[in-house]
Amino acid sequence: MVIGEITLPGVRRSVGFARNFVRDMALDFPGRDDMILVVSETVANAITHTASGRAGGRLTVVLAAGDGVYRLEVVDDGGADGAPHVKAEVGAETGRGMRIVAALASRWGFRVDGARGVVWAEFPAPVAEDRGREPFSGPG
User: Fold this and answer.
1) Tens-of-pLDDT digits for all 140 residues of the chain?
2) SS3 (DSSP) at 63
3) pTM, full prediction
4) Nearest to residue 18, comparing CAs of 57, 68, 74?
5) Which domains does the chain have, with CATH numbers?
């Protein structure tokens, strides 16, 4: 089930709008801070490495819930030189975004949807507490 979706221009200030969107949509999610960091990294990557960052480019952030997970998707305009991946070099000044995503998400991946690229990350949803009532027995 989609909780929310926002389409943003492919400009740097959209990273902050994406963070605020996730912050507002995932109010009760205990892993919200991790999700905010992941959306920040994936939106920045879309702007830097895909056609979303070119003049007129756009990207879409989707937040969904289901099957015990929250799923965050960043849909870009395509045109990347390859699929996102975790870089082997740990101490580099750049290229840490997908390493952060891999560390914070329970699962993540990439798919192509037509001409667009989709980076997704999943976060375990908290188990709902049983809020049922105790059996009631009346007088007698």
Assistant:
1) 999 999 999 999 999 999 999 999 998 898 999 999 999 999 999 999 999 999 999 999 999 998 899 999 999 999 877 666 566 666 555 557 788 899 999 999 999 999 999 999 999 987 665 445 555 444 54
2) strand
3) 0.83
4) 74
5) 2-124 (3.30.565.10)
